[in-house]
Amino acid sequence: MSSDLKIIDASWYLPGAQRNAREEYQSQHIPGAIFLDIDQVSDPTSPLPHMMPDRADFARCLAEHGISDSDQIVVYDGNGIFSAARMWWMIRMLGHARVFVLDGGLPKWLSEGRAVTADETALMRGSFSIRPALEDIADAGEVRVSLSQGELVLDARASGRFDGSVPEPRAGLKSGHMPGAKNLPFGDLLNPDGTMRAPDELRAALIARGWQPGAAVTTSCGSGVTAAIINLALAVLGERARLYDGSWAEWGGLPGAEVATGAH
């Protein structure tokens, strides 16, 4: 493996999946990969799940795991494309352009008969600095402004959670969506094997939700993880979007927050 190629296993699973990402990494991972848990590298001061950490703290974390400014970074996960997109987005928030998501992740890697190992990856400290962000972040107030101005807000949750017909998995949250938001379940951007759909298909899925090339877009989901899959799809098309980091974990619990139900 090239010395400037760094591989990150960023697997993370919802509690209902009953999977332990760290144990799976310890059992088998792509040779040379390190493991980074999005919960453990998140903002420890926030009551919300896996929020973007302080950028300087995150840069130090990457350096401690052997990653440097000159490295090309490939991120993958055990679902195909799921939490890897979140780690990709986080690293781009530090201004690092040479970061990519392994299409299809570990499942595709294994299906192709490629090598895996249980050996621990030796680390040497890297040097990782912060540059202007390549991805954007939004808070609840900024999302309210976007919605009031008619800008596109795309919610990556499943349709049942979006329309309020299915209860939220997190206790204490309202069911439904932000008034004016459009539903684009992240699965609609993926093939059955967990790989990203072709650019023309991504473009069609986005346009069907009211997207226009070059238009301002904010993405959201349950807790800021699968929203990043929409950001990734837009990046494939050469576009950018803001990600509402608090997502429904915040909005659904805000006193007085506007909530709509039904399909939109």
Fold blueprint:
Blueprint: E1 5-9, H1 21-27, E2 34-35, H2 55-64, E3 72-76, H3 83-92, E4 99-101, H4 105-111, E5 136-138, H5 140-148, E6 152-155, H6 159-163, E7 182-183, H7 199-207, E8 217-220, H8 227-236, E9 242-244, H9 247-251
> What is the count of β-strands?
9
> With helices defined by DSSP (H or I, 4 residues minimum), what is the helix count?
9
Helix content: 25-40%
CATH class of the largest domain: Alpha Beta
The major pleated sheet works out as:
5 strands, parallel
Oligomer designation:
single chain
Overall tally of domains: 2
Low-confidence stretches: none
CA-to-CA gap between the ends? 47 Å
Q: How would you describe this structure to a colleague?
A:
- Helix content is 27%, strand content 12%.
- With 264 residues, it is an alpha/beta fold.
- It folds into 2 domains: 107 residues, 3-Layer(aba) Sandwich (Oxidized Rhodanese, domain 1), CATH 3.40.250; 116 residues, Oxidized Rhodanese, domain 1 (3-Layer(aba) Sandwich), CATH 3.40.250.10.
- The longest helix has 10 residues.
- Helix 3 crosses helix 8.
- It has 9 helices and 9 strands.
- It is globular.
- The strands form 2 sheets. Strands 5-9-8-6-7 form a 5-stranded parallel β-sheet. It has a 4-stranded parallel β-sheet with strand order 2-1-3-4, covered by helices on one side.
Summarize the structure.
The protein is of the alpha/beta class and 264 residues long. It has helices at residues 21-27, 55-64, 83-92, 105-111, 140-148, 159-163, 199-207, 227-236, 247-251; strands at 5-9, 34-35, 72-76, 99-101, 136-138, 152-155, 182-183, 217-220, 242-244.
